[in-house]
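STRUCTURE:
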């Protein structure tokens, strides 16, 4: 939601294998959620940005983020069995 991202940006944040990430980006591109544009020719490098259709997901993602923040607070502590 905060502007164009490069493949490496997604790899670092999501921790997906390059093949998996590439397949997911291709599916999002085919669905019209993201678009790709080249920022370097040699070697070829692309960045991805949300299309107008993709930007309409912003309110949905915000609600999911807010829900996750409210309902997962302390979850690491609960899963480890640490009562504090």
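SEQUENCE:
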């Amino acid at each position: 939601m905060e502007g164009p991202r490069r493949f490496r940006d997604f790899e670092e944040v999501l921790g997906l294998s390059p093949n998996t990430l590439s397949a997911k980006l291709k599916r999002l591109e085919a669905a019209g959620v993201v678009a790709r544009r080249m920022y370097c020719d040699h070697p070829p490098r692309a960045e991805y940005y949300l299309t107008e259709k993709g930007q309409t997901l912003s309110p949905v993602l915000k609600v999911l983020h807010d829900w996750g923040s409210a309902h997962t607070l302390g979850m690491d502590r609960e899963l480890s069995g640490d009562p504090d």
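REMARK: Residues 1 and 55 are 7 Å apart (CA to CA).
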